[in-house]
Amino acid sequence: MCGINCIIYKNISPNINEISKMNAMIRHRGPDDEGIYNFENAVLGHVRLSILDLTSKGKQPMSNDGNFWITYNGEIYNFQEIKSELIKLKYKFFSNTDTEVVLNAFKEWGIEAFKKFNGMWSFAILDQKEKKIIISRDRYGVKPCYYFENQNKIIFSSEIKGILASEENLEIDSSKLLLRDKTKEKYSLTNFKSLNILQPGWVYEISLKDYSIKKTRWWNGLDNIPNISIKKSNIEKAVTDLLYKATERRLVSDVKIAISLSGGVDSSIIFSILNNLNSISKIDLNPFIVNYEQNQTFNEAIDLCNHYKKNPEIVKYDSEDIGKLANNFSALEISAPFFSQLEIYKAQKKKGFKVSIDGHGADECHGGYTKDIKNYGIFFQNSLADLYQTIINIKGPEYLSKMVKEMGLAQKLTKFNIDISKFLQNQDTQIVNKYIENNKIDLISNSLNEDLKKLVDFDLPFQIMYLEATYGHLQWLLNKWDKASMNSSVEIRSPFMDWEFFQYSLAIPAELKIGQGQNKSILRKAFSNIVPQNVINKQLKQGLPHVDFTYNEKSLEIIKDTINQRDFIESSLWDGKKILSDFNNKDNKKKHFNEIWKIISEHLLYKGYLDRKKEIKYNKNIELN
Length: 625
Description:
By secondary structure, the protein is of the alpha+beta class. Helix 10 packs parallel to helix 17 (473-486) and helix 12 crosses helix 13.
């Protein structure tokens, strides 16, 4: 839902046209309405995707007392419960939006209000009396927020494109081009100098007087790990109850809701839950399914539709049809070709949908990746190695040898020495590229260092899964899905990202997440009564496809067209002449293909940004709120 923009002018007068251009740049996030509010040296902007209270009462930036003003992107699924609580405290409401609930909740409880919210968000609240702006982001970073600061301005936006549409001259940092996308998410960085990511679970308080920024971590996942039963059946029931509740919460809407189905375990569980709920008045249970060459879960998706007697909408995707590369890269705001994600939401938009229920987030809290299985293996082997050493200490090596032989256990075990800090450092290494000067970047995260100290009290599978969910991987995943869906003005809602479900799932012991030859075993078992066996027992892990830009004719043609352009050759970010020379050398062309393609993709991403900026059509006569 929606897109937010904000500019704080330090030493110059506000320029309303500037935020109008920013609104225009991210209008795909909110095509239904637009608003701007100016107070002294601060300007708030908003583009609206109407989902709750479709009347003009939901227009933003919004105020209900003339002092507090909000520009808000997201959904608070439990807003009706909080609204009832606020009504008892004598608050009055003039709309049926969750936006007004957020505003009044903040007035009543300050940043403590955020802990009451079950949902996803990034928003800015202007307090005119105190002359400050508060900017908050949800627990896991489901909804994006970027900020830029120089001597003239502080700028916030839902997208990088929004800030690029401002009148500031943003520069690319060539050293950041050599960082992996997940590393940039982990350390809240972008490719641009002075343009960073507001961290999930943080709130920034900006003074309009001296421009100081007070940064507060309002949410720490390690401080919110539930105590769970040691009884397996109780855990299974809790997983079931929490996910049913999370799914039902996400049906609050005044517009039609679609379903996205892949045929994999996660989306199949959500689809099956929806088909077993009673309160489904706004949802169309005929799912959207992307079909493409080598799709190995398509048949399961069709079987599931047949099981529940539903008629799927098939979205055909051809990975060879890459479209306009620069436009697609800039839509996702990453230089990775996950273009099929764009297609499913285009199809939903054509059918009049504004909301999609999806299945993202289960792998990140239930250990659904191959790397999680490897970590389980290390953990279990270390546990067994400790057991062997204990037996040696108590009964001696001869007794151990006898026991191992009698029970058919492993004869020799190596204990792995895992240093989580070094594990992270190995992930953070910069990509080597001969065409870009490699300036070392100091990667610093105070919150990460704080969490590493606390993580010593947890076992290895939890440590890795928590770090992946908090620093980089999950945020990268959520970011590309948000950009893909909002590019077509569709809001994604994922029940697996419900914070109560997610935190509970993180806390489940490793031995319940892998068993009977399956990963995510407790999740599969919990829903085996509503998902057909051929689907729930499917072992294949398959994400949506991405374009294969390996050494082939298609890729070489794209490179050839790009490297001969003047702006590429003369770029100060890389050695364009050397690239051109190597590309024209048969041996070097193949040897350095990956290094060249990395630069090509980053160049096309930036070109996509510039093309969009040139095409901006903004409202020069917009009325201020």
